Amino acid sequence: MHLRQLIYCAVLIGIFGLFAKTAPPNWRGLWQRFVRRLSALAGHKTLSWVGLGVLILAARAALLPIWPIPRPSIYDEFSYLLQADTFAHGRLTNPAHPLWRFFESTYILQQPTYASRFPPAPALMMALGQVLFGHPWFGVWLSAGILAAVLCWALQGWLPPGWALLGAFIGLDLCLFSYWMNSYWGGAVTAIGGALVVGAWARITRGKRWQYAWLLGIGAVIVILARPFEGLLLAIPTLIALAMANRTARVWLPILLIGTTGASWFAYDNYRVTGHALRLPYQLYYEQYETAPPFSFIPIATAPRTLRPFGPGLRMRETYERARSWRVFLDRPMDWLTMLRYHYGNLIWVLPLAASMPLLARSKRTRFPVVLAMVMGTASLVEVWWYPHYAAPFLAALLILAAQSLRYLSQWKYHGQEAGRFLVNAMPAAVLLVMVTSQAEAIARHETIDQIQSKNVQVAQKESIERKLLRNQSGQHVIFVSYAGLPSPHDEWIYNPANIDAAPVIWALDLGQTENEKLRRYYAGRSFWGFKPADSMSLSPY
Fold first, then answer.
1. Among the residues of 299-414, which ranges form H helices?
2. Which of 271-285 are b and which e, b meaning 16 or more Cβ less than 10 Å from the residue's Cβ?
3. Which of 45, 109, 167, 234 could form a disulfide with 399 if both were Cys (CB 3.0 to 4.6 A apart)?
4. DSSP string of 248-298?
5. What is the model's pTM?
6. 297: number of Cβ within 10 Å
7. Beta carbons of 541 and 529 less than 8 angstroms apart
8. How many Å separate Cα 413 from the centre of its chain?
9. What is the distance between the alpha carbons of residues 145 and 188, in angstroms, rounded to a whole number?
10. Would you state the torsion angle of the CA atoms of residues 282, 285, 291, 296, taken in this order, to the nearest 10 degrees?
11. Could you give the 3-state DSSP secondary structure of residue 529?
């Protein structure tokens, strides 16, 4: 599909070139006037970044009647949603349930507290959406709109206004149509923090505007609270480069104040969840349930518990073995290409980027973004698995490099013809047409990225079972799930809200008749049901 979109763009650019050769002069004049007006609009910097953010929010909200709020469908999403529900109720974590073994689920801690294993920043935004609008997805929606605005603002610190707007346009597909907007495990919040850091750094070091140190500190805290490892990979080189350029107290005092506050809150959050200020929930979950570590240089361990014999640990161990072998040098470049496809929306932008890399590396203007990209790529080699949102802290830097490569392309002449300028004008138009038509087709066919991701999973069946049960049977219920005979490690049914006891329908693991009696006594006023997803999608009285 991605290669097909690239081919479509190339064909459209060829059509545009033929039209430019044969069209009457007044038609070419119309396009030139449009480009001049767009450049004039880009000159209004505040209007540009605010308008871009509003455009993203308005466009996705307008699509809701035909492209509804996405359903969660993978482990990470349910864990983030538990965390958001916890925050929305004014808590950092939940007390461990007295019968917690019945509620063990992938990527969720049960001891010493009932909590997600993930860092808090993305879920904090989803909790805001849940509190303000009644659903956590609206926090994702807000973060994607803010990201589009902050990206444009960040690029304005590095590039002339028109090129900054073009660079922000490259990220349009990511902000509007990708899983960053249409799921619950994207990287919008992380990328916001990274864009604040990169944009503020340029304004401090080049514009000598020390007041942006506050924004740099806020961005660094956000990115570390969202993805600690990758966040540090961005923050440490940035602070080193900043120290080389400016050591004044008025720059460093705000950064230290914000950083200390953020680190203290993060330590307190860790303490509430794990009982230790320096122990991350992610680390504790790994110690309790997993054998494959997140980094290939860490030896494999034996977890004291496993959720189920066929759980995701088997697949993770296979990935771990590949990451420790020479195959990582084959696998990771493909991951980088996938990441660029998501971050840029279309692989056509990679072509001028690849052609301009020698110029980008030599230029003082782009040397720092190049260094950040190299840090990201090198560090990814030691991570066992790698997804596009792992690179979210570096999104602004990657867009800067893409936009600057287009500036170089615009200066290219072929036999005296301004071929580069034509390509820079034609590429955004072709990408926009392909993006709109392909997404319209996906929406019409119900094949958007969230709908494809949630196909052949249990989410719709689970919701249907709950609705039918509550409609046909009065009172509250407990459903015992037996995984016997279920071959897929991805069919996880046991997800409950932050306050398990208050849920009208509780999903619990079938631990056998003797153990199940303990839960029956605990929930004496509820009805109990048995459920075997390997056999059928219907309940039977327990």
1. 313-323, 328-344, 350-362, 367-380, 395-410
2. ebbbeeeeebbbbbb
3. 167
4. -HHHHHHHHHHHHHHHHHHHHHHHHHHSSTT--HHHHHHHHH-SS-SBTTS
5. 0.95
6. 9
7. yes
8. 39
9. 9
10. 10
11. strand
